[in-house]
Amino acid sequence: MAEHPTGLPIQLEPLVTRILAPNPSAFTHTGTQVHLVGSEDLAVIDPGPDDPEHLDALVAAIGGRRVVAIVITHHHRDHSPASRPLAAITGAPIVGAAPFGPSDAGARSDAAFDADYVPDRVLGEGERVGGTGWTLEAVATPGHTSNHLAFALIETGALFSGDHVMGWSTTIVSPPDGDMTAYMASLEKLMERGDRIYYPGHGEAVENPRRLVRGMLGHRRAREGQILRLLRAGGHEVPAMVARMYAGLDRKLWPAAARSVLAHLYDLRGRGLVREEGETWTIAA
Q1: Residue 252: Cβ within 10 Å count
Q2: How is the chain split into domains, by residue range?
Q3: Cα dihedral sign for 40, 126, 122, 146?
Q4: What are the pLDDT digits (tens) for 205-218?
Q5: What are the CA-CA distances from residue 148 to residues 86, 97, 128, 139, 164 (Å)?
Q6: pLDDT tens digits for 113-133?
Q7: Gyration radius (Cα) of the chain, Å
Q8: Which Pfam families would you find in this protein's record (predicted)?
Q9: How far is residue 48's CA from residue 31's CA, in Å, rounded to a whole number?
Q10: DSSP H/E element including 186
């Protein structure tokens, strides 16, 4: 059951309104949370899927106000496709995460990516976009994807965390574009910040960010320890590891779990702790 109806604007604080897109799934929870930032003029963060009913709901919530920017944390298909029709309606530029270059299309992208995403302006660490009474600052948080950005609302201490930190589950880190080493470093980076609250792309607001991030780091380190213990008992292929590590998980989600295990293995290999022999992983000698 959705936490609130799709398409209904919910004001979270004076400068932030949330709208739930109608795309619930095992990977999106109740759907993509779209955030409008501002009062007189607006930014639209991650407008979600290109769905006519959803687009109508966004336009109604905007209510004729000027949209300064359509801001994208990363270009997964549940986050960025509505940016194009919304830009056509509002005239606002699409800004934020970098697109894939031509050489990346095969190596890094897959069905989850919005292949048609082309921003008008790519934002890097510390770059800003703003309007009347509000300023969004890009915070590079690669890991879930190589181009993932979070956005800090300078005036209130809120952070729009995209899929890097979600309000219902840990995120998927799927190689080759997802990178566990980068993901862990980005979590550590957030631990050093003093953000008051997170507004994620999926799930409810996170009111104690540091506690959640600390728990996410602990969860990933526990998974890493689980992998190392399995490999100390002998070599394993990834599917066999998933069957042992995720025995209680719905088998339909095992392919996603396998991507996460592989991301951990790549991280451990980069640190010299494991090695790959064909499809079998072992402890490094």
Answers
A1: 8
A2: 10-207, 218-283
A3: negative
A4: 999 999 999 999 99
A5: 21, 6, 15, 9, 8
A6: 899 999 999 999 999 999 999
A7: 19
A8: Lactamase_B, WHD_BLACT
A9: 9
A10: helix 180-191
